Amino acid sequence: MDVAIVGASGYAGGELIRLLMTHPEAEVTVATSRALEGRPVTDQHPHLRGYTDCVFTNPAAGDIEADFAFLAVPHTAAMNYVSPLLERGIRVVDLSADYRLPRDVYERIYGVSHTDWFEAPYGLPEISREGVKNARFVSNPGCFPTGATLAAAPLAPHAAHVIYDSKTGVSGAGDNPSATTHYPNVADGINPYKWTSHRHLAEMKQELARLGSTAACYFTPHLVPVNRGILTTAHILLDEPMGQEEVEALYREFYRGEYFVRLQRPMLSAVRGSNFCDIAVESEGSRVVAVSAIDNLVKGAAGQAIQNMNIMCGYAENAGLTVPPCLP
Ligand SMILES: NC(=O)C1=CN([C@@H]2O[C@H](COP(=O)(O)OP(=O)(O)OC[C@H]3O[C@@H](n4cnc5c(N)ncnc54)[C@H](OP(=O)(O)O)[C@@H]3O)[C@@H](O)[C@H]2O)C=CC1
Ligand SMILES: CC(=O)N[C@@H](CCC(=O)OP(=O)(O)O)C(=O)O
């Protein structure tokens, strides 16, 4: 199957190329970048030298030739590609935020008008796999909502309040340098940002509701001096107290058979480069602390997008996603 990656020069696009190299059914035949048109992909992604001869191109949306396309471009850019691709029979996973929320919520939170909105399945397979099967278009979740929702999901129907506290690596901000990501501003520090107003909060609320929860939901992210990974501590305040054994049994049952969820002590280094989400829980009665670790560029972006492609196309769900993590 020929695969196009739109936005292939970015961090998420680079990860799509890397991971798809080991996919038995998919081959990257189109890698787009406006700024790097005509340059070898390995100029931007030198770690892939020897693995690909691809050259960046810059086709119009209606001229992209492929069986499947990933959109790894910023929100507001993705919405220009979806319909032209679908109209030509190309299946699509969008990694941006453009189709994750109802239109009015999206427009309010992102402060833009959506020019091509329609409802799309939300591709967090461990929660909503059925909607992804046989879909022609899937919206890939945000990185924070992925780790947060997976941490709290088994307890969602029993929760009165869910407070997510996340630590994220700097690659979450993409490869465009800024004052926020400038080395001296990140190194040796832990910086909370958007304490009560991060744009991913709406997605977190949406996913708790999908799980049958009426819990109030709060979220504060922190930038930490690591390249990759999101560690989320979910404080789940329960309606009724629950003991440790009961909580552990609930998580084991909820995630039974889920290849990408491992119930073990979460460490960013133990999931790095992989599509795993590691989760552990501890109960103190009416509060359960659930901690998850993901790689923001893999389970939080490119890996989950490939997982969705696999489900959409009927491939093994872990095809192209079996390379072990790279601790330390
Ligand atoms: N980084 C992360 O951890 C995560 C990212 N995402 C989402 O994935 C998408 C990509 O993120 P990331 O890789 O970090 O971003 P980067 O900034 O690293 O890369 C963006 C890519 O999109 C291209 N691009 C930018 N603007 C446009 C445009 N208007 N039209 C077409 N192409 C464009 C860029 O190349 P060029 O300018 O040369 O065309 C580049 O290839 C974003 O929507 C992001 O929110 C989702 C989850 C996690
Ligand atoms: C460190 C950092 O800046 N992280 C980004 C993560 C957002 C992201 O990746 O965007 P998606 O909505 O596509 O998931 C942020 O907090 O905005």
From TrEMBL:
- Report which superkingdom the organism of origin falls in: Archaea
Localized where? Answer: Cytoplasm
GO CC list: cytoplasm
Which top EC class is named for this enzyme in its record? oxidoreductase
Q: Which family does it belong to?
A: Belongs to the NAGSA dehydrogenase family. Type 1 subfamily.
The entry's active site is C143
| Catalyzed chemical reaction(s) | N-acetyl-L-glutamate 5-semialdehyde + phosphate + NADP(+) = N-acetyl-L-glutamyl 5-phosphate + NADPH + H(+)
Q: In which pathway does it act?
A: Amino-acid biosynthesis; L-arginine biosynthesis; N(2)-acetyl-L-ornithine from L-glutamate: step 3/4
List, for all copies, the residue spans of the domain called Semialdehyde dehydrogenase NAD-binding: 2-135
In terms of Pfam families, this protein maps to: Semialdhyde_dh, Semialdhyde_dhC_1
InterPro entries xref list:
AGPR (IPR050085), AGPR_AS (IPR023013), AGPR_dimerisation_dom (IPR058924), AGPR_type-1 (IPR000706), NAD(P)-bd_dom_sf (IPR036291), Semialdehyde_DH_NAD-bd (IPR000534)
Functional description taken from the UniProt entry: Catalyzes the NADPH-dependent reduction of N-acetyl-5-glutamyl phosphate to yield N-acetyl-L-glutamate 5-semialdehyde.
Per the UniProt record, which EC number(s) apply here? 1.2.1.38
Transferase listed as a keyword: no
Q: Which UniProt keywords apply?
A: Amino-acid biosynthesis, Arginine biosynthesis, Cytoplasm, NADP, Oxidoreductase
Keyword Zinc present in the record's keywords: the answer is no
- Give any GO molecular function from the UniProt entry: N-acetyl-gamma-glutamyl-phosphate reductase activity
UniProt-listed GO biological process terms: L-arginine biosynthetic process
Return the protein name: N-acetyl-gamma-glutamyl-phosphate reductase
Q: What is the source species?
A: Methanofollis fontis
